[in-house]
Amino acid sequence: MGYQQDPSMPPAALASPITFPDSVAKVEHVQSVRTPVEIDYLATPGKSLSAYLRALKDKRILGDRCPETGQVFVPPRGVSPLSGRRTDEFIEVSDRGYVESFNITRLPIKTRPDLKPPYISAWVVPDGSSIGHITLVAGIEPEEMRIGLRVKAVWKPDDELEESAANILNWVPSGEPDVELGDLRIVGNPETAAT
Amino acid sequence: MANKERAAVIGVGQTKYASNRGDVSLAGLVREAAYRALEMAGKTWAEIDAVVIGKAPDFFEGIMMPELYLAEALGCVGKPIMRVHTAGSVGGSTAIVASSLVHGGVHDTVLTLGFEKQSESNAMWALSLPSPFTTSINAGAGGYFSPIIRRYIEHTGAPDLIGCMVALKDRQHALRNPYAHYRDPELTFEKIVESPMLWDPIRFSETCPSSDGACAMVLTNEAGGDAHDGPVAWVHGTAMRTEANNYGGRNVVSPQASEDCAAAVYSQAGITNPRVEIDAVEMYVPFSWYEPMWLESLGFADEGEGWRMVEQGTTHIDGGDLPVNCSGGVLSSNPIGASGMIRFAEAALQVMGEAGDHQVDGARKAFGHAYGGGAQYFAMWIVGAAKP
Amino acid sequence: MVASMQRQEASIDDESEVEFMVPLIHGVKASIGLSQADIGFTCSGSSDFIAGQAFSFVMTIDGANPVPPISESHVEMDGAWALYEAWVKLQTGDIDTALVYSYSKSSGGSLRDVLATQMDPYYVAPLWPDAFAIEALAARQLIEGGMVSLVELAEIASRSREYAAANPNAVQTAQRSVAEIMAEAPVMDPLRPSDLPTSADGGCALILASGERAHELCERPAWIRGIDHRSDAHTLGVRDLTTSMSASLAAHKAGVGDDKVDFAELYAPFTTSQHLLTQALGLSGNTIINPSGGALCAHTMMASGLIRIGEAAQRISVGDGDRAVAHAGSGPNLQQNLVCVLEGD
């Protein structure tokens, strides 16, 4: 038997049993302690996310543009990974787009008890954006769901709109013909930059 | 590696991986792995010059920079401690930082260790701390990777059950590794196929467990490796690559950073045909479909053909000529911060001839691989039985 | 060290971490005519606990221009250790340039409380000892042991503010006399307001180059002649809080005492830490300590150590001195210490 083959044997240095003084010898060992950690954070969205949230209140979707390549990122991030530079120009994109790929979640998640499985999360590329972002897709049976499906955003009623990503309840099929995609390993739409 | 100091692994230590190692504290957990590595290396704490520690997010255990608290447990008083964090690839990156300390001639002998004690917190919670600016729909890593896997399946036309074949193979391998967490001799292909879909197309049995555990290695320089009375794994190449996780035109199935990282490590190790020259692979496969995807990305299979290697049993330790994850892989043991280091350490054990029941006969060169983030952080190394 | 850039403000409310770091990361490269393609290795330092988010560094990586892919790593430590990792990479000979950056925006949380989660999770952290209270333990030992007086600490604080007045990146520049500080009511007895760090948001980016490459990029590079870091024990009860074994050892290994030191930039968030480090590093009265005003006047957690190194390098490059010491620290009572000796040509 080599060096690695018996995990039930402690390393030699840890093999000798720990001895306790008589005074505590019969005290039951503490198996675990619960030490809750609670810290409050004040989160600040920053310039680009702030602009994005404000636009959502007006039912507009904003992206930001790479100053070198022209790619448009939704949601805006304030930086382009393609140039390593700030993206200070905002571009309004459509609330229609297509599905790049999707996931069907068949188990409930704690942070969204309102979502009843199975439900669909998908990468949706809004028209005018160079990249997809993860969002909910509804109004279609999981069995019917497919890559290339055209979808449109469903907004909250006007009187419930606020500066929130929750303004878009989900995306649903728009009825337009599916989009034909090329090499399925590649995501996003670098050609958007030209338009 | 003309002027670089050579580096060698002379000790590997692991803990038994389990969903809850409630029998030990964090300090006890890391000491178990560290002592096993020291004993195999024939070293004492006094002979260790520095310690390099890796683990995944601090929120997993709710301790900020836990390496500070572990200083005494890891014999670090009066010594340098470094703490690496590069998402899921961290175990691999940590080993590479340790090997760089030797390659650069900064230290002679270094202990490196990765750990996670997932039972002391809730990874799902730590990964989805509420942000007021976004809506949470993603349901963890599975929800993120499932659309990528779907793309791979549609692109290659791979049969639906390839992922289940990988899952069975890795769990069969785990039965040969007494350290593995998930070991179920009753598991069958049918049970895997029938297990519930979680993140369609990912089934429950195609996902990794949550584990407690630690993995450690002792690395030393050429003189140390030569003088060592025992098996040695020589480091032939190391590389790390990072890319952005979302931009127009990104290859999500075989990220450029993955291909670049592999090319760099092959070049350093003088490998031109990995399929022929590598004898054993330990790759980071947290969801079963990533095995055929990485086989292609790392150049072991042609594009679109990785799944055929799975189907043909090429990656099975029994009869396959490119055994992958003989330890059982991440699918069988997943202490996140250690998972990458386990890949690197298991690769070392293979070329040392110390992998026991999951030893690949005559393994001379082995590949260790880890990735993280949105498949955007990569760490890889190649180790050999002979000096580079 | 061939270039550095920093930004520190009391709080940066209108920008995310990546938004305020891009001008530094891109700017420091552009300042010497480099793009990311010219950089051999990139390494950063930051903390999830300060950001309040797991994998927070992933949110910032786009700022490093990782398309096409880059050779890159990250430490969950002050950026000074990211610099150390980059320096190690340079020692291997695989690369000749490296980009290092670190940052934090601690204004979003209570840093004093966040740092309590660094303590031993079983015995100490559940008591929530805050960072000021932990330092006050050392301060009391130093004062009652007769090793430093309240007046000497007030002098350190007063002088820091004087220096900070000339530093555009300092946050605390209000001048205060020793008499005024002596009249301050303690906040965490015996520590008075002026003995404490001035919290800031911000970051630092700098570039390392080796050999001839350094001379191509900078007229007068600040050469790293020695760099070392060490840890003390974590358990407060087994440490002598009036000295710093790890800082002394790192200083010895880095060769601080081999020659005169013109000035030193020490990561000293408290006046007591500045006193203790000056002793531990063996710096004499002829060495100017913290000419930037130090962390007492601008304390950007995770970046303050790297900023010390950047400040010292900058001063060497412009010819303010020939030999400098830069120091970074981490953990309760500066459990970990990194010491770096910098020289001009």
Summarize the structure.
The complex is a heterotrimer of chains A (195), B (388) and C (345). With 195 residues, chain A is mainly beta.
Quick one: how many beta strands of chain B? 12
H-E string of chain B: EHEHEHEHHHHEEEHEEHHEHHHEE
How much is the average pLDDT of chain B? 95
Give the oligomeric state of the chains in this entry, treating copies of one chain as homo and distinct chains as hetero: heterotrimer
User: For the terminal residues of chain C, how far apart are their CA atoms?
Assistant: 12 Å
Question: Would you kindly provide a written description of the structure presented here, covering whatever features stand out?
Answer:
The complex is a heterotrimer of chains A (195), B (388) and C (345). With 195 residues, chain A is mostly beta strands. Helix content of chain A is 8%, strand content 27%. In chain A, the strands form three sheets. Chain A has a five-stranded antiparallel β-sheet, with no helix packed on it. Chain A has a three-stranded antiparallel β-sheet with strand order 2-1-5, with helices on one face. The model of chain B has no long low-confidence stretch (mean pLDDT 95). Chain B is α/β, with parallel strands linked by helices. In chain B, the strands form two sheets. In chain B, strands 3-2-4-7-1-8-12-11-10 form a nine-stranded mixed β-sheet. Chain C is built from twelve helices and ten strands. In chain C, helix 3 packs across helix 12 (304-317) and helix 6 packs across helix 10. Chain C starts with a strand and ends with a strand.
